[in-house]
Design brief:
By secondary structure, this protein is of the alpha+beta class. It has 4 domains: 119 residues, Nucleotidyltransferase, domain 5 (2-Layer Sandwich); 34 residues, no CATH class; 88 residues, ATPase, nucleotide binding domain (Nucleotidyltransferase, domain 5, 2-Layer Sandwich); 69 residues, Alpha-Beta Complex (Actin, Chain A, domain 4). It contains 12 helices and 18 strands. The strands form 5 sheets. It has a 5-stranded mixed beta sheet with strand order 3-2-1-9-10, with helices on both faces. It has a 5-stranded mixed beta sheet with strand order 13-12-11-17-18, with helices on both faces. The two termini are 34 Å apart.
Length: 343
């Protein structure tokens, strides 16, 4: 009965502080927040104030007057703007707790595996400033593997590829530890950028990041025999300045994304090549698991299967793997101490 009572008032949180989205998991409730990592700020002289956070702020991207900026405070998976990240965290934490009373939650935050000491300190200080009583950091591939249901505590190889907005995290995990890992700055944002640049270069047409993202999710990575998909897009003609509509094909988009996808494949192969033979042998049957928003790119699993000659599976609900994995640790204190980064 006491445990049930304590659970009702539990305010411990797990946060996936992503470049594209911030997800928050509350102990005993599950995922309660999934919003874009965007903050709209109004500047008056030397001061600034937050106008909107999350979905409302994302709706302003690319559409603001001169004195209002829609900012994404995280770049490549780490904090680029400390003050704005702190404001964003405060907003989300207050929203989660309905602003009813002052709470000081324990917070677990997912961070990229290649994070530096300076970046670690920035994440911790942001969380403490936003009201945390204790802060734990967990590497995103470890959290994603737990969230995907991989048996990370067993003496066998588990490979996770977590493709986020700013970074892709590749790791081989065994006995609750990361044996080999690589973090590369290739993610959904870069794919949107290369699509946008390709269209600009080839057609002299400027398209927004929202349109580039739609193109990416609509086409994915068309296979060589799939050359029929077409899509109408709208943008601004760079020569005439007039809004223009044109039609593009799927194979063009595959060509546009070729370089970053090749970098991802190379990184996966590098991790595989440096994995100890005993664990590599486990991966022959188990293969690799895809998590993160990038796992939903059409045909990516097919291409990785062809390139690695290993089984490739997409985690159930890949977008929430990191926050679910971190959230599970709120109930498993022993595992929490084993897998979080040292202070």
């Amino acid at each position: 009965m006491l445990n049930k009572f304590l659970n009702i008032f539990s305010n411990d949180l797990a946060i996936d502080l992503g470049t594209a989205s911030t997800l928050i998991y509350v102990k005993g409730k599950g995922i309660v927040t999934n919003e874009p990592s965007v903050v709209a700020v109004k500047r008056d002289g030397g001061s600034q104030r937050v106008l909107a956070v999350g979905k409302d702020a994302k709706a302003m991207l690319g559409k603001t007057p001169g004195n209002i900026s829609a900012i994404r405070p995280l770049k490549d998976g780490v904090i680029a703007d400390f003050e704005i990240t702190e404001e964003m965290l405060k907003y989300f934490i207050a929203k989660v707790h309905n602003r009813k009373f002052f709470v000081r939650p324990r917070i677990i935050v997912g961070v990229p595996s290649g994070i530096t000491q300076v970046e670690k300190r920035a994440v911790k200080e942001s969380a403490y400033s936003a009201g945390a009583s204790e802060v734990y950091l967990i590497e995103e591939p470890m959290a994603a593997a737990i969230g995907a249901g991989l048996p990370i505590t067993e003496p066998s190889g588990n490979m996770i590829v977590d493709i986020g907005g700013g970074t892709s995290e590749i790791a081989v995990i065994s006995l609750a530890g990361i044996v080999r890992s690589k973090s590369i700055r290739v993610g959904g944002d870069m794919l949107d950028q290369v699509i946008s640049q390709y269209i600009k270069r080839k057609y002299n047409l400027a398209v927004g990041t929202g349109i580039a993202e739609n193109i990416k999710m609509r086409f994915g990575l068309p296979l060589p025999d799939d050359d029929t998909a077409r899509m109408e897009i709208k943008g601004s003609n760079l020569i005439t300045g007039i809004p223009t509509t044109l039609e593009i094909g799927g194979q063009e988009i595959r060509e546009a994304m070729n370089e970053p996808i090749s970098a991802l494949i190379d990184a996966i192969k590098h991790v595989l090549e440096t994995t100890p033979p005993e664990l590599a042998a486990d991966l022959v049957d188990k293969g690799l698991v895809l998590a993160g928003g990038g796992a939903l790119i059409k045909n990516l699993d097919v291409i990785l299967r062809e390139e690695t000659m290993l089984p490739v599976t997409i985690a159930e609900d890949p977008l929430t793997c990191v926050v679910k994995g971190a959230g599970r640790l709120l109930d498993e204190i022993t595992l929490l101490k084993e897998v979080t980064l040292p202070n």
